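Per your request, structure below.
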């Protein structure tokens, strides 16, 4: 009996739908708590080609929610451990492991070669970079986020509004699974939903998952959903850059102190605290690139400068060090 017989018996899938999945190429960005169920269910469903990007290693503290991995994988790149487990389960899968992070420098190339993108990254900057690139290229994006006992998943771009149209502003404070905690089943549920939305999008099912958002508040045992087909794109979207995009003419502001980032990103970079920005006499004729670890401080600093009359602004999420 065929591996996919129980799936192909569904009238909305059938042999034609299964063949469509076999021809599909999906980019999964992130191989952590969300990415693990995404990868398992997409490969299990017979998606012919999967490319996964993640620069992290498997750690024991993550195993409670990244259940694709085992103790034997600790210290390995997540993408390589994922590749081994997924090919063991489905040897016919074409799996490309990219042990690096997605950023504004490589996003165009990575998105261009695929049919659909799944954003399973734990990064505001990556989510917005992917959304901007998918919107520009007309590619379909399934994006999600999970923290604590809450999260969301939805279908964006590819003819639907982008992530920025639904979430035009970043949150006031940064929190991650490492700092705020997370329940394993929460990311498992949301990651599995991402896979389902991706499969339904590839199969062109109606109603389309594109333009639909699911919100989970499992601490209160609440789940809700709504469509956002008519959400408007923001008129002025702050772009995220990569360090390679900095030009000699840019004014670069490093918001991190020397303890957080000992080295400056560019020769012309200046360390300025957010509270001192508007009085720093920054030039108005050049682009101002605001840099911090996650992009959140840079986003807030950009809002301050906008109120002071600055307009040519960009953000750079540089990670833990320059």
């Amino acid at each position: 009996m065929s591996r996919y017989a129980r799936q192909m018996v569904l009238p909305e899938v059938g042999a034609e739908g299964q063949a469509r999945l076999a021809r599909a190429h999906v980019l999964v960005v992130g191989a952590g708590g969300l990415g693990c169920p995404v990868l398992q269910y997409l490969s299990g469903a017979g998606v012919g080609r999967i490319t996964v990007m993640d620069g992290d290693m498997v750690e024991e503290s993550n195993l409670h929610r990244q259940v694709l991995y085992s103790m034997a994988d600790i210290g390995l790149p997540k993408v390589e451990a994922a590749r081994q487990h997924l090919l063991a389960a489905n040897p016919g899968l074409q799996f490309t492991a990219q042990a690096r992070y997605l950023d504004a420098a490589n996003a165009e190339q990575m998105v261009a070669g695929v049919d659909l993108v799944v954003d399973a990254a734990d990064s505001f900057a990556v989510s917005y970079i992917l959304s901007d690139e998918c919107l520009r290229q007309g590619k379909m994006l399934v994006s999600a986020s999970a923290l604590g006992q809450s999260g969301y998943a939805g279908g964006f771009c590819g003819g639907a509004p982008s992530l920025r149209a639904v979430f035009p502003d970043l949150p006031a404070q940064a929190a991650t699974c490492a700092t705020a905690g997370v329940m394993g089943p929460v990311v498992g549920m949301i990651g599995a939903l991402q896979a389902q939305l991706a499969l339904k999008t590839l199969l062109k099912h109606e109603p389309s998952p594109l333009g639909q958002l699911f919100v989970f508040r499992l601490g209160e045992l609440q789940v809700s959903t709504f469509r956002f087909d008519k959400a408007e794109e923001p008129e002025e979207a702050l772009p995220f850059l990569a360090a390679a995009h900095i030009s000699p003419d840019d004014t670069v502001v490093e918001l991190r102190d020397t303890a957080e980032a000992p080295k400056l990103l560019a020769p012309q970079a200046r360390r300025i605290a957010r509270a001192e920005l508007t009085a720093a006499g920054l030039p108005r004729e050049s682009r101002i690139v605001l840099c911090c670890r996650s992009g959140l401080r840079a986003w807030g600093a950009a809002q301050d400068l906008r109120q002071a009359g600055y307009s040519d602004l960009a953000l750079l999420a540089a990670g833990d060090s320059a």
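The radius of gyration is 20 Å.

Regards,
D.
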